[in-house]
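Task card 7
Instruction: Convert sequence to structure tokens.
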Amino acid sequence: MNHRIISLRYRPQDFDELTGQAHVVLSLKGAIKSQRIGHAFLFSGPRGIGKTTAARIFAKSLNCVQGPTIHPCQKCQSCQEIKLSRSIDVVEIDGASNRGIDEIRNLRESAQYSPLYGKYKIYIIDEVHMLTAEAFNALLKTLEEPPPSVKFVFATTNPTRVPQTILSRCERFAFKRLSVKEICSRLKSIAEKEAIDITDKALHYIALRADGSIRDAESILEQLVSFVEGTITEDHVFKLVGFLSSEFYYNVVRQIIEGNYAEVLTAVNSGIEEGADPLEIYRGVVDYLRAALLVSSNMPQEFMDLSDEEIDHIRSLDIDREKIIRMVEALLKSEDMVRRSINTRIAIELVFCQLLQIDGPAPTPREGTNKGDLKQQLLAVLQAESPKLAALIQKSSLEADEKNVRITVDQEFSRKILVEGGHLLQAVLRKILKRDIELVVEVAENKKKDNNLENAIRALFDGEEVR
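Output:
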């Protein structure tokens, strides 16, 4: 007997078996009960959450010998053929590999024929956004005036790429990502039926790794069953999929807060040696800091996908909300650099070391602040907000009086960059000095002559001098 994987063996066959899409089920059931069934439906949402499965169940409900019904019998010829994906009246089309105008022309021609066994001829087009513009145009006429016995169900992970002319003729249903709790519940039910010995923590980390996709979660469970003899634990999950525990991220964030450079770098490299991708560690730290922000904001637990133990760990961190915000902001600003780096490991090491220099709230000026203190306070804030401006300020001289802050630089290019960032500089200085100021950026008198050549070149290419 051929082995059937878990995701196929336990694929929902009835609306009541669908996990986490109660709003869609309620609407579809209502349409069937009232006999107000549209001719075209668009199911949109992330991968692996039940869009195509719901389309199949909907097709069974319409073509069941007892239908249209919200509870297909699962025994008639139509139900059995749809279940085995060999129904003549229910045609499943992969939009990614059948995306051209010829395939849609064939569909239009076949739609003219009456269904053979069921009440309707139903076309399920998966990843419909992959169709070409010409194919969409060819489909449009059939959608405008479909034969009475034809229904269309489109599934897509990217509804923004579907033309508005198509969207306007469809009833739209937005499928949502499944929560960790919903995925855990589904996996636990499957484990009980399959007599799989697995811990609750392992189920929790599988659900986290699946990132809202029940299909991904079932695939990971399938791998674990083949990989592990005996009880499946969270350690098996980490080893199999290169996933790191919340304790790992707790330790990294704690070491960052405590300013321990060596411990941060050691933790990051140990995670990489255990099989985790550097980008995965980067995203994990961002997600953990987001969780810390939600916990510090007293968000309801159902929005956080965290266990009680993880929440207690986060609350034990000695970190204020403003510092969390500044750390997340610094990480997001570095995201492009991390993704494009030829050595991602070095990139995230650098980014995490920069996080150690963030002090949380902007420094509060002491009484009698002199220009040296002001410059250092300005640099402390800009290192997190804009490293580029901080580097220019470091090389400049700064003077302040009651109304003005004057920054003197050596080059016209530096002056131009500081002027462009003037709004940020003024906002930071206003916060430090606690008063409105006027910012003046100028080139030192003894350096202006050095810029004559630059001005001449710019005048040659741009048509005007830099003033």
